[in-house]
Amino acid sequence: MKKIRFIETINFQQYYKYKVIIFIFIIVASLFTAGKAFAQDLTIKEHIPWGWIHDFELYEDGIFISPYDGGIGYFDIDENFNLTHQYTIDPGGGHVLAQFCVIDSFLYALDGAMGHLAGTPIFFVYQISNTGYQFLAGLEPCGTIWAQFDPIIYHNGNVIFHNYPGDYFRINVSQPSNPILTGSLYSTSDVSHDIIPYQDTLLIATRQSGTGFWDGNFRIIENVPPDPLVSLGTYGTNSYTYTSGAINIGSFLFTSHLDGLRVYDILDLGNVQQIYFYSTAWGRCVSKVGNYIFMGCNDGWHLFEYTSPDDVQHLDYHSNDTRVLRMRLKLEAEELWCFVDEGAHGGIVVLDVSGNVGIDENECRLCDKDVILYNYPNPFNPTTNIAFSLSEANHVTLEVYNIKGQKVKKLVDETLPAGNHTIIWNGTDLNNKPVASGIYFYKLKSGNYTSTKKMILLK
C-alpha cells in the first residue's frame, strides 16, 4: 500500500521524468559493467609455434631466442608476427648458450652444455645490434650449470646468476669487455627460479634441493658490491609450496607459487608477512603491467588487479593445456609475450594487454619506472606507512591534507636517492596534535610527477 500511495502522489510529468532518469542510470551502469567485463578479458593475440626454449628476450623490433640445443638466434618480427632469422650467436667448441639477459646493446649469456671443459668460459659477453654481434669477453667463474632453469639478471652494472645446486655469482660488467667476478655464495642447496633485486639484497625465488616441494619460498641475500654475497636466511613455511617467479612493487613481493599467487610485505626483511593468497594450479611466472598482475600457471593465465599491494582482486582466467613458463613485456606494442611448453599453444603466445586492461603507455612507464605510491594499512589507526619508489634521485615533497583541502602535515621536503622509501604518518597535524577520524589525502611531488591518494583514519 505504501508504494501505491507514493505513485499516486506524483503527476505523470514527474513519473516520466523518473523513468528517464532510471533508464539513463541503467544505460550508464550497463556501459560501465561492459567496460569492466572487457577490461577483465584475457585475449590471445597471436600464437607462434616453436619447440623448447631456454629463454627469450625482446630487442628493438625483434626477438632473441635460445632453443634447446643451439646458440641464441635473433629474429625480426613483422606486423603479422612472422619471424625472420637474422643471425645466431654460437660460440662453438661444444658450448650451448641457454639463459641470457639483454641490456642496451649487450647480451650476457650462460653456457648450458651438459658438460663443461675446464679452462673455457661459462659466462659470455656480446655486443649486439639488430644486424649482427661481436664477442667481447668470456669468464669461467664456475663449472657446468643447469641453465635450463638457472636465472640470470642485470642490476646496477652487475650480472648475477645462479648455478644449480645452490651457488650464486656476481660479475661486474661496468666494462663489458672486462667482466670481473666480485662476489659468490656457495652451497645453499637452492633450486633457484628467479632473482629480484630489492634495496641492498637479492630476493631469490627458490626451494631447497633434497626437500621435495616442502620448504623454501624465497632466500634473502645481502648484495652490497664489492662486498661478498651473504645469505640472510630463507623465508618459508613447511607447506606444499615453493616460489617459481617473483616481482616486487615497492616493499611488497608478488610471487607465483606451486599453489597460487602470494603477496608478502617485505618492509621488514626480518619479519616477512604474507598478506594475500589466491589458490591456482602450479604458478610458474609472474609479470606486472600498470596496476595489473599476470601469472602463468601449469594450466593457463590468471589476471589480477591491485589498487594497493594489499588490495588484490582476481579478474580473469584463460585456460591452457600445459605450462606457461616465461613472460616478457613489450610495452610499446602493449603485448605480453609468453613461452608455453608444448600443447596446443606450444611455443610463443602473445597476449593483448592494451584494450584488455586499458593501458596508457605513458602511465604504464610512469608506474614501472618513475614513482610507485601507496599507503598501508588503509584504513588505519593510529599510524600508516606511505611508500613510494624512485627510479632516480629527485627532490620530493610529501604532504597530508584534510577533506577541506587544508594542509595537515608536511612529511617530506628534501632530495631523496633512487630506491624504495617508506614514510610513517602518525596521525598528527603540524602542531603534533592527533587529528580526528576521517578521510585524508597524501600528495607526493617528485620532479614533474604529482600524485594524490586517499586514506582513512578510523579511531
Structure description:
This protein has 459 residues and is mainly β. It has 3 domains: 2-34; 44-366, YVTN repeat-like/Quinoprotein amine dehydrogenase (Methylamine Dehydrogenase, Chain H, 7 Propeller), CATH 2.130.10.10; 368-457, Sandwich (Immunoglobulin-like). Helices cover 10% and strands 53% of the residues. It is built from 3 helices and 35 strands. The chain has helices at 2-8, 12-39, 361-370; strands at residues 43-49, 53-59, 62-67, 72-77, 83-89, 97-103, 106-111, 123-128, 133-139, 152-155, 158-163, 167-172, 180-185, 190-198, 201-208, 218-222, 230-235, 243-249, 252-257, 260-265, 273-279, 283-289, 292-297, 300-308, 311-319, 324-330, 335-340, 347-352, 371-376, 384-390, 394-402, 407-416, 419-425, 438-446, 449-457. It has a 4-stranded antiparallel β-sheet, with no helix packed on it. Strands 2-3-4-5 form a 4-stranded antiparallel β-sheet, with no helix packed on it. Strands 6-7-8-9 form a 4-stranded antiparallel β-sheet, with no helix packed on it. A hairpin with a 2-residue loop joins strand 23 (292-297) and strand 24.
